[in-house]
Amino acid sequence: MRSCNTVSVITQLLVSCSLLVLVSTTPRMEQNTTKGYLKDIEPVDEDQSEGPSPRIVGGQYAADGQFPHQISLYIFGDFTCGGSIISANYVVTAAHCVTSKPGSNYPAYYFTVRAGSSQLYSGGEYVRVAETKVHPQYRSFVNDIALLRLGSKLTLCSRIKAIPLASAEPPSGSAVVISGFGRVRTNGELSTRLKYNTLRSISNAQCNRLVRGVASTTLCLSHTAGNGACNGDSGGPGVYNGQLVGVSNYIVNGCGSTYPDGYAKVPSFRNWLRQNSDLP
């Protein structure tokens, strides 16, 4: 049983410009607790095996074309996040993947997207990002969702497909499939091949009993130790019944801990996504 004095670390799953942002907080064991705060920024050297960095923990490797909606996002050519194709012109990802902090967007020309490949640095279509659209109410760990308008239209085919947006969240206990190129564990090596795993959705009430202050717009996905998302999986998809239900946002107490992972709840943002893209 966790003590109310146990310190947890919530980590946004970003690998960008060699920086990893860590935020300290505690599990919610009482009603009145203060909001988590920025603790520090640690440099990440991807040429070393030590230090925090990205990939799906546990699970297995994806077959070519198994997740045709999955993309990899790059900043100045370096991998930083995942994302999902929602039309030939638009990708959805996490807001913290394209901002230095809430309210400060990186220029769109920093970014490129690879679609249609299960390999991190080869294959598929490689296109530039023309515009980033961040949710106007984004702040750390809340409303952490963004749209990317691509500079050229993707050629939709068997390996490049748009995924429908869910209109309702999955029932508690549902199997939700996550995928990404993040690291296999905290301090683990950078993956070059797409992986996936199956987690379980839990209610917001259940989640708030484990981690304090979880927003109603956050989808919590539970898992056993040694499974879940890791750094670099930010922006990547959570899929239920063939529809996008979540966008990867953060982990608690490191990769593969027993705490649930936090995803932006797509049904909560469905109207905003449709209004700011070319979806009908």
Summarize the structure.
Helix content is 6%, strand content 36%. It is mainly beta and 280 residues long.
* Overall tally of domains: 2
N-to-C order of helices and strands: EEEEEEEEEEEEEEHEEEEH
The tally of helices reads 2
| CATH-derived architecture of the largest domain | Beta Barrel
Could you tell me the mean pLDDT? 84
| Cα radius of gyration in angstroms | 17 Å
In the CATH hierarchy, what is the class of the largest domain? Answer: Mainly Beta
Structural class: mainly beta
* 3D shape: globular
Share of helix among residues? under 10%
Task: Count all strands and give the number.
Answer: 18
Tell me the CATH superfamily of the largest domain: Trypsin-like serine proteases
Signal peptide: 1-25
InterPro entries: Peptidase_S1, Peptidase_S1_PA, Peptidase_S1_PA_chymotrypsin, Peptidase_S1A, Trypsin_dom, TRYPSIN_HIS
Region (Disordered): 34-53
GO biological process, one term: proteolysis
Description:
The chain has 280 residues and is mainly β. The protein has 2 domains: 70-162 and 270-275, Thrombin, subunit H (Beta Barrel), CATH 2.40.10; 163-267, Trypsin-like serine proteases (Thrombin, subunit H), CATH 2.40.10. It has helices spanning 204-210, 266-275, and strands at 8-12, 19-25, 37-43, 60-61, 70-75, 78-85, 90-93, 99-101, 104-105, 111-115, 125-134, 146-150, 175-180, 195-202, 218-222, 237-240, 243-252, 261-265. It has a 6-stranded antiparallel barrel. Strand 17 and strand 18 form a beta hairpin. The radius of gyration is 17 Å and the shape is globular. The model is unreliable at 1-7 and 16-55 (pLDDT under 50).
